[in-house]
Structure formats: C-alpha cells, structure tokens
Design a protein that fits this description.
Strand content: 15-25%
Structural class: alpha/beta
Distance between the termini: 42 Å
Number of helices: 20
Strand order of the largest sheet: 13-21-20-14-15-19-16-18-17
CATH class of the largest domain: Alpha Beta
Amino acid sequence: MKIILGISAFYHDSAATILIDGKIIAAAQEERFTRKKHDSSYPFNAIEFVLDFAKIKLCDVDQIIFFEKPFLKFERLLETYVAFAPRGFKSFCMAMPVWLKDKLFQKKMLFNELKRHDNNFNEIKKIYFSDHHLSHAASAFFPSPFEDAVVLTADGVGEWATTTVAIGKGNKLEIKKEIHFPHSLGLLYSAFTYYTGFKVNSGEYKLMGLAPYGKPIFEGKIKNKLIDIKEDGSFHLDQSYFNYATGLTMINKKFENLFGQKVRNPKNEKITQFHMDIAASIQKVTEDIMIKIAKSLKEEFNISNLCLAGGVALNCVANGKILNEKIFDNIWVQPAAGDAGGSLGAALALWHIEQNNPRKIYNEDSMQGSYLGPEYLQKEIEEQLDAAGAKYEIFKDEELLDKTATDIANEEAIGWFQGRMEFGPRALGGRSILGDPRSEKMQKNLNLKVKFRESFRPFAPSILREDLSEWFDLNVDSPYMLLVSNISKDKAIEMTEDQKNTFGIDKLNIKRSEIPAVTHVDYSARIQTVNKKTNEKYFRLIEKFKEKTNCPVLINTSFNVRGEPIVNTPLDAFNCFMGTDLDKLVIGNCYLDKTNQNQFLQKDYKNKFELD
C-alpha cells in the first residue's frame, strides 16, 4: 500500500488530499474547519481530517508533496522587482522579510508543522515539491474520464506560468507551452474585479454574475489598449496600466483614466450601469481568448478531449461557450479548479508521472462526485444538535424526503446537510441551501434574507440528468456546476419590447422562464446534473419534488452566508440556520423547524463574517 499526502497552502484556499495506491480517499479545504474564507494558512485541520478519514498516522505516509516550488516563485519575485525598479520598492520591502524568514525555507517549515500531527514523524526526505501549473494540469487530467486530452490551465500566476498547455496520454502528462508572468488572463480578470469594487481572489464570480446586466461597450478599449491578443489566443498585457507586478494594488491611475472612473468603493458606492458594462466587457474578452486558445489547440494537436483547471476554469460561462462552439468532442473541468485542487494534482502527478503507476479510467471520472470531505453519523449529528439546544424530529428516509419536497414546493428555504462535504467551491447537494425554482420571489429572498448578498447574484439549478435536455440546451453531464447553458426555448418566456428596454438591475424582476429563480437575465443557468450513483439521497429528493410538481429542478446554493465558508459540521449548519431566514434544516435524518426552536438561540449572523 502506497500513501501520498498532497498539500496546497500559503497563497489562498489551503487544502489537503490523501491518495492510497493512486485512489482519491479524502480531500478538504482548510477554510471549512477554521471558518475563515479562503484560509491560506498551513492546513493543519484539513491534514488531520484526511489522515483520520484514511485511518492512518502521518508516519505511515510514504510521500508528502507540496503543490508548488518556493524557490522558483522567489526567483520570479526578485526578477520582477529588478525588471521594474525603482517601481515597487515599497512592496519589495514588505515581501522580502516574509520570504527570507518563512517561505524560502519551506521544506524545514513544513517539516516542523508536520511534526505537530505525529511526534514520530522524522523523515524530512519524504517531503517533495511539485510545479504549480503541473499540479493544476494533473488535477484536471488524471481524474478525467479520458485516455488522452489537451489540458489547459489558466489562473493568476504560479511560479512563472500563468497559462499552460499540456498533453495527457494514459499515465503521462507533459507541459508543452506556457505564457509567463506578468501576462495573465487571471490577473487581468482580477484587475477588473478590483476596479468594480469586489475582492480579488473571491469576487471574480460576482463580476461574472454581473456581466449579463451590461453591454460589452468597453471590449474595443480593452483589446486596443490593455491586451494584445494573437490569432492562437496567446496574449500580452500592457503593464503601464497595471500595478500588480510590483505594487500593492491591481491597477493604477492610467487604468482609471482609460475608463473614466475611479475604483468603486464598495462601502459607499452603488453598482451602476457603468460597472455592469465593464463586467460585460471583460467577460466577453475572457470568453474570446479562451475560445481562440481552444480552437488553436484543437487544430495543433487534433485530440478530441479538453481538460481545464486553474482559477479561470471556474468561469463556467466561458466553459459553456467553449462547449457551444463544439471545438472539442468532450470537456471535463476539475471541480476544485483553484489552488485547493493543487493538493490533489500534486499527489496525482507524483503517483503517475514520477512513479510511473498505471492509471485507472472511470466512465464518469474518479472524483466520486467531489464528495471527498467529512461525513457525520446520525449519532454524531444528534449529539451536536443536543449540545446546541436544538429541537428536532427524526424521520426515516422516505418520510424525510417527502416532507422536505413538500416544504420546498411551499416556497420554504431549506438547509440540506447530507453525506460527505464537497471538495471545491461549489455545494453539490451535500451542504446546500435548497428552494423552489418556479417561485418568482425566491431568488431575491434567498439573496437578501438568507445569503445576505447582492440581489443580482444568480442561483444554480440542480436537475435530474435524464430530464436535462428537456429543460436546457445541453445534453452532456455537468455534475460540478461548471457549465452554463440556456434554458430550453419551450420553457422560456419571451420578453416584451418594453422589458427588453429595461436597464441594469430592473431586468432582475422580469420572469423569463417556467423556473425564473434559476434563469439568469440572459436566459442562462449554471447547471448541475444529478446522478443517482454519486448522490442517491439528493437524487431521490429531486425525484420526489418532481412527483409533486412535475418539475425535476431545485435551486441549489451553498450552505453559508456571504463571506462565510460552506458549513462543515452539524453545529455550523445549526448556527447558520439560526442566523438566517432559513425555514427548515434537514441534517442526516433530523428535521428541524425554525418555529420550534428556542428564539434565544438566534444568532446575529449578518455581521459575523467579513464581506467578500
């Protein structure tokens, strides 16, 4: 038996993964345990969990691999500061002490941290380092259902690379070409995230959600001034508009002058049509680049499968556009496409590439629905709920599913906590908030009363796989909510001329389909297909809802409030339930009604977490 522990940490979304003989056993992000969103610290709790789940001690682990190479990253920082000198001296002075004290001697630091898990661990030579983008590429290719594939990774920056192309065949994976820092599609998108007043490294999906409210009127300006895009999709950014290479902000005055407005201050400035148009413009440019790259890769390598990872692969709208263009026959996106997935990719790269172990290919994929986190027994759930003072009833599965489906059909908001927690940023029916997609008021209510977030943010539909093509213009699996497609024509409601002329956020209140709560303003939806094999209880709940309503779709959003990581434990779930306007909580076989709870247990949840 060969055990590998993969670790990603110290930038954002720290995580840990355990492989046993190449099989993914467990994986989780540190944020879920510490309750600190995008936690970048050493993933002590995540490592404790994966070891515990695999029932092993750290000294039983054969190899430990970190997802990137600190020396190469340090070299990039030094060379960047030298190249841009004297610009950036201030951030150089801030960065260097941290590097010289901690990051440069990461092997020793990791060794010291690892000893905290197991005093008997004393073999520093068990620690290895992978390359950042190789970790991403391995996380995309090795779990995929393909024998061979083109693997495209794009994010902010790893050591030097920001975009890479690799070719995977069997158990081999080789990076063929790269685009290097400071030219980065991820950082370009983040620059606009920053400009519109959202948080870099977490607000990018807000920018994507805002885009359909605007028109891409600044597309020409971006392409003419900020980025030079070649025919094959490779690109070059004009650094005179940006500050991220050396400064403490993403953009500079020249960038602001180009678009005619200062950076939006989220504390006191509302989102306007200008910000919606900016969002639409950068989204369109991103899609164009991704499509150009995909087309040139298909032409060059003539392989029919595409795998995607890196933060940019979480841009499910761009993924949907690549699929629509029918460039590749099949597309597979790693559900933990960001840095958390680097812990998984590094471990898989070590197992397959370095150690030449054969690869087993599964029909769907080898991610097990991405349900790789902690699970709680009924007894543990009851203990945690009792300790919290919760009032609950216990029902057998059939009655529990029937009651929950009835509640959803009555437009109630349900906290749903079942089975293993998801790995990656999306709730997939393990730690979800559920609602009725047919309700016209559900999107607004969930956003404002439960999630405490901006009303424009769209919700995803979970749909039974066999009903997919009847409701959406899509007929491929989308188990990880990483493909966007349009609602079927016969389910859509045509807008009147007056409605077409509405602007911005007013578009939100127009009913566009039979399932308005999950239909975005451009008739699109971020789809999750649900399959009986990977999540039977969730599948049966949607089936039960379909029996009652003739609708095989539920609203599925992550079980948390804005700025909070997805809930991990039964206690986290109860606290979130008591701090929001959720009506019911269904956790294991326990059923909690808000009206039966002790009102003194209510939480002030709205101000508990720092806004993202």
